[in-house]
Input
Amino acid sequence: MTLGKVQLLNKDIIMERHIELPITSEVASSLNAGDYLYLSGEMYVARDAAHKRIYELIEKGEPLPIDLKDSCIYYMGPSPAREGQVIGSAGPTTASRMDKYAPTFLDKGQKCMIGKGKRSKEVRDAIIRNHAVYLASVGGAGALLSKCIVESEVIAYEDLGAEAIRKIKVKDFPAIVVCDDKGGNLYDL
Amino acid sequence: MRIINTSEVTQIVSKMCIDANYYLSEDMKETFNKSMDREESELGKKIFSQLEENLQIAGEDKIPICQDTGMAVIFVEIGQEVSLQGANITDAINEGVRKGYTEGYLRKSVVSDPIERVNTKDNTPAVIHYDIVPGDKVKITVAPKGFGSENMSRVFMLKPADGIEGVKEAILTAVKDAGPNACPPMVVGVGIGGTFEKSALMAKKALTRNLNDRPDIEWVRSLEDEMLDEINSLGIGPGGLGGKLTALAVNINTYATHIAGLPVAVNICCHVNRHVTEII
Output
């Protein structure tokens, strides 16, 4: 659903859309760099250490702790939740640290990545060939973003502490399309 | 000699770690608000308003401003007329960090070894810089540093012939390379002169300077103003999504250097430039 338009300085008109997760190839292909999204539904949370472990399992051909097909992974490591809170501060971490692993994950079916900052050419190519998408949420807005997370559960690698894999449910989680499957890259616009 | 028990240091450091992660300093807030009014990009304005709301939620609902509550960088100035008693001062500071990060629901982001990477689960050890100064006080600054921006920081060993133009180029290169990764609008700390490590330490310390305080040296003041203007004409913008405000401030510290060198360190910090200072 199109909600409205935002005029960017020296940039095209930007579309605001509400998106239900999971993002499939069809949905990903309908997105363009610069689209402002509000995401609702389930996604995984994983960052450096969890990516390394999953990557090693893929290389060995062993079973994975999460199903990558049509998955969305939010690159994030939250601060601890207080009593009564779903999660602590929960903003994005720098995505480029996952660049080594992301193409393999995308080739295995992952469709959406959420983080902040630039991606490598290898990742952007993998986005195009797999009809996937890379989104950025606002770095350093962890308190605000935590309010969009309505459920959170550690589902693997609890020993990693803040780096454990979580499944979270979000409602109207704001994110901006940075890299789309047409080769569009918001940081280059 | 004035006697200070290091248990007092533990208590203060603990509280400072918590305060720094929940509340931004007044000078940062003031600069943030002023900058916000100058943003022209609609998306940039939208990001600014999210960041403003984020600060409000952090303070009211007791959620850290950013989930990366940092590695604790601590500057300690010990008056030479002070006698520290009790536990070893370094242990006392680390105990304060352990207590603050645990009781304050702050993220534990420190691994014990850079290659083996096992989380210490209490955010220790801190990175502590000691100075012995005149007087009978102990001044402590706690500056939790997130690594999104820390990773984008650089040291350039320039030649004297590169001069001020070389310095400007180095600063702009670091900021451009950092781009959206460093969570702009950023604060840029710069150290010019000294040695390799001195320049980096000055750049770090520059980030803790009150934004209303200006350097005494005229060319340094001018350079701060010029670099802020230059950085804000790069178009990186809030969140790196395009716009006018890429940096909130440029703070530069300088020191004597060697006849053969011109070290320049650029320590980048995101818009959550956290630092708290207390004097015992």
